[in-house]
Amino acid sequence: MDGPVEGRVEQEISWLLDRARIRELTARYNRCFDDGDPDGYADTFTEDGVMEVAGGPSTSGRNDLAEMCRKIPWGVMHVTVDATVDVDGDSAKQHVALVVIRRAGRPQDKPQITSTGRYEDDLVRTPDGWRFARRRCTLDGWVEK
Amino acid sequence: MDGPVEGRVEQEISWLLDRARIRELTARYNRCFDDGDPDGYADTFTEDGVMEVAGGPSTSGRNDLAEMCRKIPWGVMHVTVDATVDVDGDSAKQHVALVVIRRAGRPQDKPQITSTGRYEDDLVRTPDGWRFARRRCTLDGWVEK
Amino acid sequence: MDGPVEGRVEQEISWLLDRARIRELTARYNRCFDDGDPDGYADTFTEDGVMEVAGGPSTSGRNDLAEMCRKIPWGVMHVTVDATVDVDGDSAKQHVALVVIRRAGRPQDKPQITSTGRYEDDLVRTPDGWRFARRRCTLDGWVEK
Fold first, then answer.
1. What digits encode the pLDDT tens for the residues C50-96?
2. Labelling B30: which of C31, C71, C83, C97 has CA 20 to 30 A away?
3. Is residue C144 in some structural domain?
């Protein structure tokens, strides 16, 4: 059970599990934010977790993260795609692309993409599962290219 | 092989496999519907499977599902992202976000997002693999917010 | 270790690992192309890999692939979703949907979808991991429907 071959397979299975759990954590982040669940949103971070928008605001700690989520009016949809996840023991890094869509609130409205960008995430394994220690979001067009 | 640790690992590997199979089933649902394969589309459901649009039509059984698919003209692209999957024995629930895009049929046309929404899916494990027992789709904007 | 049950489980775990690696390879393809890393882009292919656009250009070999990437101006975002992956030994096929978005370069710009399509990919397992042997991309609207 401890030979080099078995050890490598176990490590790869661990990566698969961690990767899937981190992808689902990210899905919950999106859904909680977009459907108005501030506590669920804050719970995707560690107690002192940080959400930083490059060139924009930075928010620290679950209380402030929940408050920030509470203030955003309905209508945002976060889509995250094309992730890579690297795990090192109880730490992980995720790089994932972001598309933000304006949802239609009425039948006559049309949804549209409002921004694109990237997340660079630092995650930690906690007794409750993976949590974001820090998310850094870079949005295209915030600074001239 | 039956100790608590090994049992948990096996359970997590089972979840990984079920999750990946359900994600691929959902991909086939999208592709069959969008590329005009009514029988392939109907086969992603159980024999008596139900597709329900909240506030809209409900379609039951493979024959009617295939017929519904057959009537839709070319031009729809279903994109599903940010899924969470919970498995309980031979049943599963998937929550997944939806973006519907109008595909360009001619070089001068531009694709555009026509709607966003959510699927809440009930799935069952069959001898042929996972199938949708019931999909419930909620589209943004069908009812005023 | 070689019984029919254990063999099947090992095969399914292998598929899970191969599928996740191929999904991450595809994510790197998108990110390298979109963020201007021609060598990283070319490295997602085998040395003699081919990128073919149905009804459009075909590019072969890492040198030409890197050169093609180098010439594309900033502003493209590849989004790939709803993949199915079939593995046969050291070969694999991926079918994955594509959405191409025009990124905003300035605060006053709005991103928009410029095309949708499909990739049909042939991959091979190399000592450095999975690589694209051939990608064939079909874009909607290039030929009248």
1. 999 999 899 999 999 999 999 999 999 999 999 999 999 999 999 99
2. C31
3. no
In chain C, how many domains are there? 1
Residue B145 domain flag: no
Instruction: Write phi, then psi, for B115 (nearest 5 degrees).
Output: -160, 160
Residues 21-80 of C with CB under 8 A from B: none
Whole-prediction pTM: 0.95
Give ipTM to 2 decimals: 0.93
Biggest CA–CA distance in chain B, Å, is 63
- How far apart CA C77 and CA C113 sit, in angstroms, is 9
Chain C residues with CB-CB distance to B31 below 8 A: 82, 84, 95, 97
Q: What is the mean pLDDT of each run of 10 residues along chain A (145 residues)?
A: 66 96 98 98 98 95 98 96 98 98 93 97 98 98 71
C30–A141 C-beta distance less than 8 A: no
Report the alpha-carbon distance of residue A79 to residue A116 in Å, rounded: 9
Domain annotation covers residue A37: yes
- CATH number of the domain that residue B100 is part of: 3.10.450.50
Tell me how close the Cα of B144 comes to any Cα of chain A, in angstroms.
5
**Structural domain contains residue C75:** yes
Inspect the interface and report whether the beta carbons of B84 and A28 lie closer than 8 Å: yes
Which of C79, C96, C130 has the highest number of chain A CBs within 10 A, making it the mutation to test binding with A? C79
Residue C82 lies in domain: 4-139
Is residue B15 a contact partner of residue B86, using CB atoms and an 8 Å limit?
no
